[in-house]
Amino acid sequence: MPAFTRSRVALLLIFITPALWGVNALIARVAPGLIEPHLLAMSRWLLASLLFALGSHREVRVHWRQALADWRHYLVLGALGMWICGAWVYIGGQTTSAANIGLIYSISPVLIVLASALWLGERVTGRQALGVGLALAGVLHVVFKGQWHALLQVQFVPGDGWILAATVSWTLYSLLLRKWSSPLGMGARLAVISLAGAMVNLPFALWEIAHAPAPALTSVGLTLAVVAAVIPGFGAYLAHSFMQHELGAARVSVVLYLSPIYTAAMAWLVLGEGLHGFHLWGLALVLPGIWLVTRAR
Questions:
Q1: CA distance 211 to 228
Q2: Nearest alpha carbon to residue 138 among 176, 102, 88
Q3: Which residues contact 72 (CB under 8 A, 6 or more apart)?
Q4: CA 18, 23, 254 angle in degrees (round to 5)?
């Protein structure tokens, strides 16, 4: 695929990938009582690893020695992207509010932009900084339902600590994924990382199976794990890796700002939750912010 075409596809994926991640938010809301958090994360990434390997198993077989030599890198990426950003989000979502999750996660793109400039040497222009600021204002407008005085009334609970850890973890995952080179292509690399993430989740999942007060897994819970593996797992992470390769960590980070708006729209369509004017105003701020970040030279 020509470089120009790859870049255009990456830009298009910026507006598609948040919808894939939004499916995970819906799964997190219905999963309690149907499947335990670590078991959900472990099943999700084990299945996703198999999906990634379907088209890349020959490449993994050719480069398995190099991959084995870099096992520490893959284990760290699996822990950051599939354990902390997987099971910990499901745990935190049991006790914290959607507003707090949106507020805390809105920190991540700012951290990624700053760290990309200081650590990876990616150039951040004034227009990009303005775009990040507009997108941040848009997502906060949605989080606070258009009532900014609610910022003074936010109360934090223990679940927020899990979400904050996941936010920092996603920042590190995004940066290290770009910084650490690999002989593997995107699909093969994600197959190994996903398998490493499933392995990290495994002992915790076994503990849940042994100690869960209710059945740790139901048939509906298994269905949720399959959907999580296919859409926000295989689809979203492959798209994210492709975008990072083509656009850089800083420009891709702004996709997180579309997630709360997409999730609200999906909850309206699937769960019958309300869609309000502040969602549209938030989108009106987020979209030009993303345009400024992705169009900056």
A1: 24
A2: 102
A3: none
A4: 15
Q: How far apart are CA 31 and CA 29, in angstroms?
A: 6
List pLDDT tens digits, range 117-147: 777 777 767 777 777 777 777 767 766 667 7
List, as one string, the DSSP characters of 226-253: HHHIIIIIIIHHHHHHHHHHHH-HHHHG
Separation CA 129–CA 131 (nearest Å): 5
47: its two tokens: 């299945």
Q: Is the pTM here over 0.90, yes or no? A: no
Side chain identity at residue 60, one-letter code? V
**Which residues, other chains included, contact 206 with Cβ-Cβ below 8 Å and sequence gap of 6+?**
none
Contact assessment for residue 90 and residue 186, using Cβ atoms and an 8 Å cutoff: no
- AA identity, residue 224: L
Cα–Cα distance, 215 to 209 (Å, whole number): 8
The reported pLDDT for the residue numbered 82 is: 94
Q: Which of 79-88, 211-220, 278-287 has the highest mean pLDDT?
A: 79-88
**Smallest Cα–Cα separation from 271: which of 102, 25, 87, 36?**
25
pLDDT tens digit string along 228-243?
999 999 999 999 889 8
Among 134, 66, 73, CA closest to 106: 134
